[in-house]
Design brief:
Strand content: 5-15%
Radius of gyration: 25 Å
Strand order of the largest sheet: 2-1-3-5-4
Structural class: alpha/beta
Largest sheet: 5 strands, mixed
Shape: globular
Number of strands: 5
Helix content: 55-70%
């Protein structure tokens, strides 16, 4: 007969396998969306390393580390969109175990098993594990950075300070928001020294100073060389609705589930405030990260809005860790087991409201543009010329944006033997009376996507999941 401990372990293994499966099964179901196409264009292995840097600094707002990795993966394995997505999935899978290990360092109980359960089936992390973007690498490096600093707190082994400096520097080299984690640990040191009057830790302070220098150099060189000429305005300062869920609705799949996790977390913070602020250094660091992850972008947003859920994806680490560790600190077994049951039930139940599971008993929906279907339709039509609507950007960037589209479309055309012709916007403007397909995706912050100029007549229109296609004729 299987005892309860073995049953828990078997169930956890099953959930982890399921989490791995969900990160791989639909990896290439959707075509690339525009940001992924930009990554694909920047990391073209057929260009030189220096040219890759030139493309990056004029296109991406995040530093170069992720793009360097994808560039060399494309050199080794071939120039395919799947390469970048597989990398994200592998990093997403490793993150299940890194966060589980982090929780075990914080509290050597079954809390790590609960965290791996929540990590495996987190719909937000599953989604970003299937995108060719830097966010899962940000998440993974953040977890490694916290593992290193917590291991140092436990052991005082200087090796962990070295790995902390490396992982934190690489995290900053991947996304500037990860500096919040470093600032949080710095804040913890100030609190530890001035408020708690703890012994001066010269090794940790030296590591923090050295890492500060590394981060400063990376940040200075990155922003000094940045050549973005467009005014990215899609981020908005949070409205009142944001303060009712703090992105928990996105992190956990729905507004109801978000509120459940948020309310429980707030309850835990008040219930265990003594443990957080007086006894457990690691819990305090996590709490500071949680607070500053929201506070810093919101305050900076007064000058220029920058807060976005994916930019602070690493905040899921302290959220899950605090929930899992503190629930096991509850003395009343009935309350503890009830809350654990709530976490388990709502997490698995949420899967049936998402495409992850619904696809097995209902038709899976497309949320990203179906560029491949659009190009195939053009290929089968009598009019094989097409262009892309790039009116959403300024004149200086139109050529670059067209190159990004064309690079991916050429890949799809070569792979599927399409016999179609791309016409640049300048070439099209110089043409006389002709018919041409105009493609535009309203996912690319293009509010005027459907609008047609006065000198054009629509001959036919099609829609392929967030792509509007118009066959137009110049009058």
């Amino acid at each position: 007969m299987i005892n309860s401990k073995n049953l828990i372990n078997i169930s956890l293994i099953f959930v982890i396998i399921l989490g791995v499966f969900l990160r791989l099964y639909n990896l290439n179901y959707d075509d690339l969306w525009f940001d992924e196409m930009a990554t694909f264009w920047v990391t073209d292995p057929n260009i030189s390393f220096s040219e890759m840097f030139e493309r990056h600094k004029s296109t991406e707002l995040a530093p170069q580390f992720y793009y360097i990795i994808i560039y060399f993966l494309n050199v080794i394995f071939g120039y395919e969109p799947e390469i970048g997505r597989y990398f994200s999935s592998i990093i997403g899978i490793l993150s299940i175990f890194s966060v589980g290990y982090l929780v075990k360092i914080v509290n050597n109980s079954n809390a790590y098993k609960l965290s791996m359960y929540l990590m495996s089936l987190n719909v937000y992390l599953i989604s970003y594990s299937m995108e060719m973007r830097a966010y899962m690498l940000v998440f993974f490096l953040s977890s490694l950075s916290l593992i290193s600093i917590f291991k140092y707190i436990n052991t005082k082994n200087k090796l962990f300070l070295f790995t902390f400096s490396i992982t934190q520097t690489l995290a900053a080299f991947t996304h500037p928001f990860t500096i919040i984690i470093f600032v949080s640990i710095f804040t913890f040191q100030i609190y530890n020294y001035f408020i708690k009057k703890n012994t001066y830790d010269k090794n940790l302070n030296f590591s923090l100073a050295l890492t500060t220098i590394f981060i400063f150099i990376i940040t200075f060189l990155y922003y000094f060389n940045l050549d973005i000429t467009d005014d990215y305005t899609w981020n908005k300062q949070p409205n009142i609705k944001f303060y009712t869920n703090f992105y928990f609705s996105k992190f956990f799949g729905s507004r109801l589930l978000g509120l459940i996790h948020l309310i429980i977390l707030i309850y835990f913070i008040f219930k265990f405030k003594k443990s957080i602020f007086k006894l457990n250094h690691k819990l305090l660091i996590l709490f500071i990260i949680l607070c500053l992850s929201y506070l810093v972008p919101i305050v900076y947003g007064v000058y220029k809005p920058i807060l976005n859920s994916k930019y602070i994806i690493f905040v899921i680490i302290p959220i899950i860790t605090l929930l899992c560790v503190l629930v096991y600190d509850i003395k009343n077994k009935i309350i503890k087991n009830t809350l654990i049951a709530i976490f388990l039930i709502v997490t698995i139940g949420n899967q049936f409201t998402e495409q992850n599971f619904k696809q097995f008993y209902d038709e899976r929906k497309y949320f990203k543009p179906q560029f491949n279907l659009a190009l195939n339709y053009i290929n089968l039509s009598d009019n094989k010329n097409y262009t892309v609507n790039v009116e959403f950007t300024n004149d200086n960037l139109k050529k670059k944006y067209e190159d990004i589209y064309l690079n991916y479309f050429q890949h799809l055309s070569k792979k599927n033997n399409y016999n179609i012709n791309f016409i640049s916007s300048n070439e099209y403007n110089n043409m006389n009376s002709t018919q041409i397909w105009i493609l535009c995706s309203h996912l690319v912050f293009n509010e005027n996507c459907k609008k047609i100029k006065n000198n054009q007549t629509i001959m036919e229109n099609k829609n392929f999941s967030n792509i509007y296609m118009n066959l137009v004729k110049k009058n």
